[in-house]
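tool_call: predict_structure(chain=1)
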Amino acid sequence: MPLLQEGTSALEEKYACDSLDERILKALSEDARSSFRVIAKGLKVSTSTVVQRVKRLEQAGIIRGYAAVYDYSKLGYEFVGLVEVTINKGALLAVQKKISLLPGVVAVYDVTGLSDSMVLIRTKNRNEFSKLVKTILAIEQVERSNTHVILNVVKEEYRQFL
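tool_result:
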């Protein structure tokens, strides 16, 4: 059930997940292609309970969508990097949005520290990687960037951590 705490805006609305919600989320993260019937059987609840809970989780924005998990290196995306970006004052959100629309940009994070944003990029080769980093640096309000090439991925798990 959505829980709106006093003094919070609708954007800060929190959802109070109980243990059944968490178990449903875990089951979906392990295999989002499972039928609700299979999930319900595994959790020892009715199918209609799972359907109602999933619908509520979707409406609350907890479940934002369903997607396949890829091994990008097997698809030829060999270069992964993390780009620290420092942006002129007052232009942060506009620049982050502009960067987020660039092909090859996986994620844009608003961070604390010496940089304003961290940008995760993934490209097929060194030339594409170089062009993307230079495109980010060429954005008018970008003051500077510091690029880290990721040599090896030790752990990369986006599916779940509940």
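agent: The chain is about 35% helix and 20% strand. Proceeding to next step.
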